[in-house]
Each structure stands twice: as C-alpha cells, then as structure tokens.
Amino acid sequence: MFDEDFKYILLPVTYGIVCVVGLFLNLLALYGFIFRIKTWNASTTYMFNLAISDTLYVVSLPLLVYYYAMGDNWPFSVGLCKIVRFLFYTNLYCSILFLLCISIHRFLGICYPLKSLQWGHVRYARRVSVIVWVVTVVCQSPVLFFVTTTVRRDTITCHDTSSKDLFGQFVIYSSVMLVLLFCIPFLIIIICYCLMARRLLQPTRGISRLSRSKKKSVKMIIIVLVVFIVCFLPFHVTRTLYYSFRSWDLSCQTLNAINLAYKVTRPLASTNSCLDPILYFLAGQRFMKFAGNKMMWKPQNEMALGIVPNSPLGTSNDTDTLPKDAKS
C-alpha cells in the first residue's frame, strides 16, 4: 500500500496555483490574440490553439483541488471524473504537438526561409491545427473508457489510470501514446532546434542588431527546450516506471519512492499551462508590455508603447526579434 499522505497537501496547493496563474495568463493571452492582433501568422495560430487547450484544462482544476483536499474523495459523477482525466491528457499532448508545430515553423523560417513562405502560411497552420485537435482527441478518447471510480469504505476514488482488471491494457495503450505523442515529437523538436542553433551561431557579416537578434533567438530556443524537458520529460519517465513497477515484486520502499516521484511530476506536467505563455511573450517583445499594462490599457496607448496594431503578437515596428532571414 502506498504512503500518499503527502499528496493531500502537495496536489491541492500546486493545482490551485496552476489554476489561478494559468487561467489569468491564458485568458490574458486569448484577449490579446482575439482583440489586439489584427494580422495572424502561423505561429500566432498555433499559439492561439495552445492557449485554448491550456484554458480548457485549468478550468477543470478546481475539481481536482477539491478532490485531493478531501482526501481522495470524489463527490461528483463518474462522467465528470472521466472528463477531468481526459482534459489532462488532451492538454498534455495538445501542448506537445503544438510546440512541435511552432518548432517546425521556426525551423523553416530560419533554415529554409523561402519554403516557409508557402508552408508557413496561416491557411496551412489552420488546417494543421484542426488535424492536431482531431488526432489528440481521437488518441485520448480511450481514456474515457479506461478511467473509472471505485468505492472504498466511505470514499469514492477517481482513478487516473483504470480499474485493476483493465490495467494491463491501459499500460499498453499508454506506452503507444508515449512513443507516438511524446518520444517522436520530442526527437523532432530537438533536431529542429539543433539545426536552428547551428544556423544562428554561424558567423555572418552584418550590423550589431543582427548579432543581438541571433543571441535572443538562441536564448528562446534554450528556454523552450528547458520548459519542454522540465514539464513533460520527468512525467513520462516516472509514469513509465510507476506503471512498470506496479506489476513487479519490489520492496515497499522502492514502490513508495517511485510513487512519490510520479505524484510530484504529475502536477509538474500541469505547469505547462503557466509556462506556455512565455512563448507568446518571447514571440513579441511588446506582448509583455501589453500584459503588464492590460488593466490600464487605452487605445491611444498603442503608439506610446510602440505597438503596431496589425503586426503579429503585437510586435513593435523595429524588427529585433529574429534575424531578417529567419522571419516567416
């Protein structure tokens, strides 16, 4: 039997913080996308869908906060339990796939700028976004079948896996999702960013502004990779070990250790809903100023902040975010 007393404090607190911070940042981002951006590009489209995915997930977190604060007692329906778990995995893999789309788009813009003019068009981005949603929803629909609740004494448990008799099938399903929706996208992202970094770090002749923009682009690559690794990699590693160790004859100390690691990395994976907005701020330097001044925003303040209303992500009219040949 696992010692899980720690999670009744850890999970409500972390999920509560993610809910408040994530909801604020993503609603602010959605407002910016919908009302402040007049002309969209491919990156804007992917980021908008990423913000929608994060928002749908964080609005479900109050149910989990209440559930864990009450000591694993689920007072709601079985259907609501299934939906909450489904939203977690849908957001998880939507985030990964949209980060993949953003990475490929940036890769084309930096390494193949001419091709990016065609494949980086917003028309293609909308089609790809629809495909991402369809693929994710279809791939995660088995969660609605596997997830269930069980009654133990006076409490009802909302499982994040499945019942005991279906656990073996659930592990197989999760392993397939691990390879298709995490390992392969992660590998592609690493390859894209390595090639982008090599291109950006190549010595070129130009003014100092180009040098500064290259440094900013490399820094952005590093931040995206760090966020990806911190949020998603630990969760998938510990979940794989957790599922595997449950079927092995191991000591209670070992099982408790891996259970602790899994329970810690699970809310860590949820923090992507708070960290994804970093992408929006990095995409346009003035987007951060927009966020900071949102509560006192006035239409006439746009020019005071140097924002071009028709530019993607509220970027300023000086082009210091990416090198000229890297733009798309």
Automatic annotation (TrEMBL):
Listed CDD domains: 7tmA_P2Y2
GO biological process, one term: positive regulation of mucus secretion
Membrane disposition: Multi-pass membrane protein
Keyword terms, alphabetized: Cell membrane, Disulfide bond, G-protein coupled receptor, Membrane, Receptor, Transducer, Transmembrane, Transmembrane helix
Region entry Disordered, spans: 309-328
PANTHER family xrefs: P2Y PURINOCEPTOR 2, PURINOCEPTOR-RELATED G-PROTEIN COUPLED RECEPTOR
Name of the protein in its database record: P2Y purinoceptor 2
Protein's organism: Patagioenas fasciata monilis
Taxonomic classification: Eukaryota, Metazoa, Chordata, Craniata, Vertebrata
Gene name tied to this protein: P2RY2
